[in-house]
Amino acid sequence: MGKYETLAKEIVKNVGGKENVSSLVHCITRLRFKLKDESKAKDDVLKNMDGVVTVMKSGGQYQVVIGNHVPDVFAEVMPLLGLAEEAGQEEDPEKGSLFNRAIDTISGIFQPILGIMAACGMVKGLNALFVALGLYSDACGGYLILNAIGDGLFNFMPLFLGYTAAKKFKLKPMLGLVIGAIMCYPTIQNSALSAGGNALYTLFGGTMFASKVYTDFFGIPLIGMDYTGTVIPVIFVVYFASKCEKFFNKFIPDLVKFFFVPMLTLLVAIPAGLLVIGPLATFGSTVIAEAVMTVRNFSPMLAGAIVGLTWQILVIFGLHWGFIPVYINNIMTNGFDNVMMPFFACTFATSAVVLGVFFKTKNKQIKEMAIPNFISGIFGVTEPAIYGILLPLKKPFIISCIVGGIGGGFYGAFNFRKFMMGGMGIFEFPAMIEPDGSMGNLIVAVVGVIISMVLGFAATMIFYKEKEPAAVQGTEEQYKDQLEPEITGQEKMMKQLEIASPIKGRVLKLESVKDAAFASGVLGKGAAILPEEGKVYAPASGVVSALFPTLHALGIETDDGVQILIHIGLDTVQLNGEGFEAMIKQGDRIEKGQLLITFDKEFIESKGYCVETPVLVSNSDDFLDVVETREEYADAGDLLLNVLK
Description:
alpha+beta; 8-stranded antiparallel β-sheet; 4-stranded antiparallel β-sheet; 22 helices
């Protein structure tokens, strides 16, 4: 069994099953589901699942936040869904609000290439750094090869985006790839050279859209555009091509569809793309770049502070994807980005706050989480820290946002820029070296990091005060040490009456059960099981003291006088026994491990009932204490409760 196979099965089950999933993609830390009916997903179950950080709903996506090992979980989930790698095409782009569709489209197109984009950008940035440090010359072969590694993706960006956009718009992916290749075709890019460098005339002269025309397409002017490295034009051309393909598929006979549909799609989409769509999209890119620069120039410090203050909030809801094209477009159009880069301060503010929490907390579980999350934040991945520590503790999250705003304001005031895409966290530094090799911008980057980390750490040490264990709010996994009583040396000398788990499944804290009566402990101390199968076994030897007519609950009095209540599911009394079968009757003598009841777990869930099963010591007041297992999973027969006498 794969390391994450069990987790993958639980995730699929609790998002409503594979039949409820239209598509699935993942980013650095999240599984991003497109669900047919989000109401079928069990948010609370997923949030409390070991291996899941939290659940978010944003941009038309149901996001299950996993952490750094999300690719491994994704690899286990996909076969369970029965979806091909192109699963992202299953969703209906016409559903949802315009805003949600826009965010979903942007994320779906850019997510697949972000990892390789970061890798290539890091190589290019390090290559520039090593030349600036004098380790080798930019004329040597080593520099040439490393630069090719760094530049390859960015120079031919339309090919990659053509492929991912085609998958998103339900166009055959290879057609999208071909469209990207055509837009990078050398002769088209060098139309000026083909015409001997002499323009026929200039369109839109005297405006920001002034464009030279070197040739035409059967009398229609072809504006000289360089699409290599661009992002917006190819996306619009591919979208248009997807509509063309859909149109031709309706009318072309099946016998010749295989080659006629692609041919006609290209014959219509490419001329339209190069003559109209591409130039208009390029003009639009120019307008966007000018607009954001105008807004930023109004008050660089204020603009930077706003980005720094709000970036983590955008990340929480996955809305930061809406700004990725702005960031890429700025670099491609202006040669740098100084609008979105103030978010860089948030990365290090978050890391410093987590480090401060590490020193302030006395909670062992939080300490264990803090250092890995600090390191992850330094490398640019802050979501585990945000969801795992900062948000549950509240005040540290507020501190990190405020400090991020201060750092962002500093970056805005000093015109902090990034000159190439790629890299995350500390690996972004090489991309901040100015093209002429000067280090002024890099110094601003380092100073901003120092300011953000010093302020974040200091503010946490001063203002964050840990609450008493009983008052701390958070998930059971984050505060396990505070929620689970330990058996002390003195208690070990007492008599321990062991109660086995009657059901195979995941162990839940009783206070996490979605029923106030059970969760409060007023019915007795104990634990709960989230069943994996519909079988209930005797947790100890004794007598069946009660068996409800609906068979959803039974009482057992053990030979040691422990009264146990097993309640199969919540509110399942309303099923009137449907889906349950008893192998025993009230008054029967039972032995530990004996099969008592079977139940149809899938049927119960299909009726909308929760199958969380509390296992209580109903006379717990007669004993010194009831201590639940520290294990997160139990087979039937494994130790679940220790009753101290």
